[in-house]
Each structure stands twice: as structure tokens, then as C-alpha cells.
Amino acid sequence: MSSVGYRHRINTPRKTNPWAKSYAQGIHDIDLVIPKSSIMGLIGPNGAGKTTLLRIITGLYKQQSGTIDLSLAERRQKTGFMPEQVRWEGRASVAESLKEILLMNGLDSLPEKLLQIVGLAKRADTPLDELSQGMRQRLSLACALIGDPEILVLDEPMNGLDPLAQRAFAELLRKLASKGVAIIISSHQVAGMIDLVDTIALLHRGQLLIQGDVESVAKKLDVGQKIAISGSGIPPEGMEKDGNGWKGVLQGDPGELITAFQNQGLEFISPQPIDLVEMITAATGLSIEDTGLELSSSDMIPLKKWGEEE
Amino acid sequence: MKVLWPLLILFIIGAAWGLSDNNASLLGGIEIDSPYAVLYISSAFILLSATLGAVFISFDGISRDRISGVLEIKLSQPISRRSLGGSLILGHWAAIALPTCLLSVVAIVIIGERMGDYPSLGEVALYLGATMLVLLWYTLIQLIASSWADDMGSSIALGMGSWMLFTLLWLLLTTVVAGLLGVAVDQTSNPEWLQIQALMDLLSPNGLYHLLLEIPLNEVDRGVNTPVVVLFAVLWTALPTWLLLRRLQYLTP
Predict the structure, then answer these.
(1) Rounded to two decimals, what is the model's pTM?
(2) Interchain pair B72, A81: CB under 8 A
(3) Which of A57, A186, B180, B195 gives the lowest tally of CB atoms within 10 Å of its CB?
(4) What number is the ipTM of this complex?
């Protein structure tokens, strides 16, 4: 897509006109390339325009300016969309709800594998009212996977999933990407995203600030690889005291750091993952509090095998 | 539907049973002298039960999905908005039309057996056709209202509000219009009043339903020609359908 813009209208009731509407911020001049066989993380502070952009990609909104290679109908055909927090409710069962979506895709039989993939095989006949939030998320994912989409768009997919399910979900996404599916994922839980995504697109105030693979973006924003080091004895300059020794986090080449600190009691050196929050704050100038990002991590739970039922 | 079945049985079957009694008499000296007259009068009970059923089934037909977020999933599917709209209309309408149709057929059998005379096939077709149409109009009105509603409260308000307007308040509105036009409203047999009432009925699904059912009744003449009634029936079907499909075309979650 190139130079894509969209501004939706929102209710702004006034005393003289309770039905008054005005244009929201929307998104402007978005040039975005969605590569095949990769997972793109769409990140940005609250209100950056992530959901609006995702809705344009899925064909829910028609762009008001700019061009997209796929038409609206083609986007709906080729895209699987998992919106944020769908509250499935009613007496209909999981299978019945999926069949309704299947019919909208011109399909008539529910593939058993679909329910297995999302871990709902044993819940096919469960009424929607009895599903937990995590199961509702899985059902939304199943809807997104219907029709073997070429592009998978996921808006805050980790919400409501327990850490175990988050790990299984990440594995599933990697598997789909390896099969050629282009995946775009928007999430506030950025701590876990760095290990999941191949490329990132950073959105702020409706504008795409930067796009590329994680390392190159980090380099451009000067928030590259960080190394945690610790040692014993008197803390060298810039290091903080830690019990009987010292510790600190530095940016630089591991070899150079070892050389620089080897005579100062250096005992431990560990590369740290690139920090997406740091990237966002560096690119937008906002503080962490202002971004509204969640920094939770799910690294405490052991990895489950893909497709395994919980 | 669990709530609606007893309501529909009570009103449709109950009305047919009661009104087909040889000793039945109505206020105002209205005579029930034929099976079709029973059907015509029992149509009032359709308006009190089946149309309410259409409201219950359709008032949140779109807003519920919008509130829960499911609408976002449905709108992003490859199905065209026109087809989606068609299936919405058909699904919601059939949910109330099929039980009503079934019970109406049972009611016709009851009337025929109790009176020893059945309405003609043409009368049955008109009665069932008009009943299905009024349910379709209510379904369309409710779905349009539901597409505007942003929450469950406004869904209920719009749904019940429109039903009450046409079922309970329309006569009041007609009286106000007649009063503004200088027509005496204290004489219900006044031809001017009857004509204004008939013209106002063209603008209400309930009134138009009765005008359609009055077509075979030679003794009833409210000054509106049959082609006009048919034209308004077509308009009441086509315009809301077009409006709903257009709403769906541009609907956003």
C-alpha cells in the first residue's frame, strides 16, 4: 500500500447538535509492504491508528486516499482477521458459530483440523455463553484461519490468553508463516513480541514512522543490542553496586566489553533482547507511561508443542 | 422463541377459536358472518403478538453483533454486503414468519371446522401473504433501527419505540393530523375522518396490513383504491430493504 489515508467520523455531540460528527485523527500517508512468510509486528502507543490500519488491510474500511495492490473484495477474500476482544455470546455452539462464518466464505463443512489447531476440538458443542475469554479468543482465531488466508491480521491476539496458550499461539503463528502466510500482529504486550516478529512497523499519531526488520530498525533508532554484565569487587565507572559486586547494562560489541572490563572483576556477560518499548519511546519521544504499553512477560512458562490441546 | 410460541398460540389460535364461535359478539355491533371476517378481525391479534415477536427477534439483529465485536468478523468475510444483508433479512424474518404461518394455517382449519365453512383459497392467500408482509416490514424496521443502535439500551428503545408508535400511538397521531386539518374526530363514521385514517394507515405497517386485508371486503370502503394499497405495500417492502442494504454497504464495526 502506498500513501494510504483514512479518517473515520466520530460522534461529537454538542448542545446545538447532539448528532454532530467530526473527523478523528485516522492514519495518513501510510506506505507499507507486507512481506510473505513473515510476521510483522505493528506497534505504537495507544491511539496511534493501529486498529484503523488493520481494518483497512482486512477490507473493513476502504482507504480514502492512496492505493493498495489488492481491491477491497480481494482483501476480504485473502485476509483472515482476528479483531480485539470479541465477546462471543449466545446459545449457539462453537461449531455452529464457525459454520456461519464458513458459509460466508462459501464453504459448507467444518474442517476438524481447524478446531484442533486452535485447541477447541473438545469444545465444538459448547454454547458460546459457557466459553472463557481465552476460548473466545481461540474461536476468533479459528474464524481468522477459515479459508486458508494468505494474510493473517491479528489485533491484540494475546489478550485473555494464559501464558501457556500464548506460547502455543506464537508457535502456531511461526508455523503459518513458514507456510507462506503473511502475518500482521498488533499487540500491547510488547515484551513477548520481539521474539515473535520478523519485521516491525512503528505507528504514531496516524503516521508510519519506520518499518523494517527488527535489527535494522533498532540500529536506525540507536537502540541496538544491549549487554548485561556483572562482576565482583569495586564497581567500575557507570556500574551500580550489587551485593559484593556490581552490575550494569551497556550497548556495544560483546568482545570490546570483555576487553574493557576483564581487569575490573568481570564475571558474567549476557546479551539482552532488543527492547521494543525503548524503540517506541525513542521514535515517538513519549515516556513509557504515555505509550500505554504493557510490559508483561510470559517467559516463566515452559513451551508447549504446537497444536497440543490444553 | 420459547417465549414467543405460547404468545403466538394464545393470540392466533385463541383468537380463531373464540371468534369462530357461533355465539361470539363484538362491541359496536360488528358482525362476524364469514370465515374471512374471522380472519380479518383476528388480524388484530397478529399485530399484538407476531409483530411483537418480530421486534423481539430482530431488535438486536445487528447491534448485538456490533456490541460483542462479532460484527467485525462478519463484515471482514468475503461474502458481499448485499448477500449478508439478504441473509440477515431472510433469517430474522423466517424466524417469526414460519411459526406465524404454521399457526395461521392451524387457525384457518379451526375456523373452517367450527363454522362449517372455509375461507376461499384467494382469501387464505391474501391473509397469509399480508401477514408475512407485515412481519417482513417489522423485521426490516427493526434491523434498520438495530444498525443505528450503538448499545443494547438504544436497541431496545428503538425497537420497542417503533412497535409502540405503530401499534399504540398511530391512532393518536392520526387524530392529531385530522384535528390539524379541521376534520371532526368525534364522529368515527365521518367519511372525511375515515379517509384521513386510511391515508395515515398507508404510512403505518399495521394500517397498511389492514388495508390489504380489506381488499375483498366489499362493505368496507375507506376511500383508498386497491392499486394505491398495493403500491404502498410494494414501497413498504422495497424502500426499507434498499435502506437496510445501503446501511450495510457502508456499515463499519
Answers:
(1) 0.81
(2) yes
(3) B180
(4) 0.79
Cβ contacts of residue A42 below 8 Å, gap of 6+? A50, A53, A54, A184, A185, A186, A200, A201, A203
Q: Radius of gyration over alpha carbons of chain B, in Å?
A: 19
Measured between beta carbons, the chain B residues lying within 8 angstroms of A157 are none
Give the N- to C-terminal CA distance of chain B in Å, as an integer: 27
Q: Which of B60, B66, B70, B74 to mutate to test the interface with A (most CBs of A within 10 A)?
A: B70
Interface of A with B in 211-240 (CB under 8 A): none
The domains of chain A, with CATH numbers, are: 2-12+20-220+277-291 (3.40.50.300), 226-273 (no CATH)
The alpha carbon of residue B205 is apart from the nearest alpha carbon of chain A, in Å, by 28
**Residue A90 dihedral angles phi and psi, to the nearest 5°:** 125, 180
pLDDT tens, position by position, for chain A (310 residues)? 888 999 888 888 888 988 888 888 889 889 998 889 999 999 888 888 899 999 999 999 999 999 999 998 899 999 999 998 899 999 999 999 999 999 999 888 877 888 888 888 889 999 999 998 888 988 999 999 998 899 999 998 887 777 887 888 888 889 899 999 999 999 766 666 788 899 999 888 889 988 988 888 888 877 766 788 888 888 888 788 888 888 887 777 777 777 777 777 888 877 776 667 777 777 777 766 666 555 443 333 333 444 444 3
- Interatomic CA distance for residues B46 and B51, integer angstroms: 7
| Candidate from A83, A88, A101 with C-beta closest to B77 | A101
